[in-house]
Amino acid sequence: MLAIGKVIWISVRPLLRLVICTSFGFIVTKAGIFPLEAARGAGQVMLNILLPSLLFSKIIPAFTPQNAGALGPLILVCVFYEASGILMAWLVKQFFWVPHRFRYGILVAGGWGNYGDIPTSVLMSITGSAPFNGASDQNLSVAYLAAFLLIFCVTLFPMGGHRLIAMDYAGPEIDDAELRMPMFQKLKESISSWRQYVSRILAREHQEHVDVDSEITQDSEPPADPEGEENVASLAFSEPTLDDKRISQGDAIQNLPMALSRQNTRTTQFSFQCAQTSKRMSNVESVSAKSMALDDERAGPCRNDLLSLNKMQSDDEKRDDKQLSLAIVNPCPDRAKTPSTIAVRSPRSHRILKRLYAILKSFMIPPTLSILTAFPIALIQPLKALFTPIPNSPIPNAPDGQPPLAFILDAASFIGAASVPVSLICLGSALARLHIPRQNWGTLPVGAIAWLAIGKMLVMPVVGVAFTQALVSAGIIDAEDKVLRIVCIFMSCVPTATTQVFLTQVYSDTGRADHVSAFLVPQYAIMLLSMTALIAYSLSLLF
């Protein structure tokens, strides 16, 4: 059991280093000697060179096949923290009004925390000295932190978390004065909105059941002429006489599946997809259906039949409604294709390939590549023996007695040592540029700002301690792995990532991020007290 004074000093010391380094970035920015271009350049150097080098140099010596099982709990804890943060931000949104251009950004602010510079600096300081085991535990803490960074990058970019920020700037502008309301009125409005949403879902499910019942009734009708199974169905929705009820093109298309099912002797299901609306169809002379799938395994020897739309207009029908004729054309090899039949490839495969390309491209960032490269090297012993000494190594050493590729790891360690101070200077510079409309405090969503800060910096640490201890009790986290436990606990007390400021500036038409700034500053102010208390409690819990 550590003494109270020692626990307090160990808890405060990492934050003192963090504050000093961050203050330098804040001061030089306010003094005008660290302009925006220089800050962006330093940030690019940190993200593309320094941070990947730090992760590479820490993961390889720290991870072994024995502690590789910690990756599962780390991923579980990270996903839980992100989901809990999003849920908490959503609850804040239900009780307090939020600016229109931050209605989805508040979910990002709640879910994605600063998993980079702040925890790296604090955890390296805590685990690098007593009561931990010095350099070995320090490397292990950064290696465990890499799992949080990986999940952060995957959920924010490949899985589309950043699109929530883009959604804030979709649609027309709405004045915040129209949204500003007391808490009880906002809660009443939220309840009313959810009632309407649930009613729409129930009505939609009821309609689906009605449609299914009607299809079953239709399938039970007696079959038509058996010869229809061997022939190609040809349907024409011709214009009726003046005495009859006219059928519009939209009605014809809407009734197409029912008419086709009645024409064929066996039940045939149709999925009619058209990329153009009926309004556009009425403005062109000929329309070819872009997508028509026929699931006719029971309807004939050919699996794919193409339904083409041909709209023909004769000279003596210009004064009346236009005629829409639809024909099912069988594209079997023994049948000649008519010039009017145009097979258009479904764009679904293109969308899937494009999505996969975007996901793979989002992984091609240096920090993620460094993590994905370092983990296999650390876990495959022959590869690890090339970089760092291991017992019973099958790889002969270089003339200096070190592994052949130890110089790469040494260079990565040397470069990565600059990652933490440079990142903290960039953090201070970013905080110095945050613009808060001080003269308009009354126009800010004070309730949402305050409760999001309280939730992330005061409530989430309590939830993090309880969740981590539950995993320890369940045997998912090894009780003897104190580095893993303090990493999982500490990561529950990080403020919103400053990455959201940069993403908001990208998606914003004006390049400003005033709403994000107003939500970030209180969190970073509370962070100093909440982190100190959490570290002190964690040390007393572990030792």
Automatic annotation (TrEMBL):
InterPro entries: Ecm3-like, Mem_transp_PIN-like. It is a multi-pass membrane protein. The chain crosses the membrane at residues 15-33, 70-92, 104-126, 138-157, 356-379, 405-432, 444-477, 516-539. It holds the Pfam family Mem_trans. One of its GO terms (cellular component) is membrane. GO terms for biological process: transmembrane transport. Its main location: membrane. It comes from the Eukaryota. Residues 213-230 have a biased composition (Acidic residues). It is found in: Membrane. The keyword Transcription does not apply. This is Auxin efflux carrier. The lineage of its organism: Eukaryota, Fungi, Dikarya, Basidiomycota, Agaricomycotina.
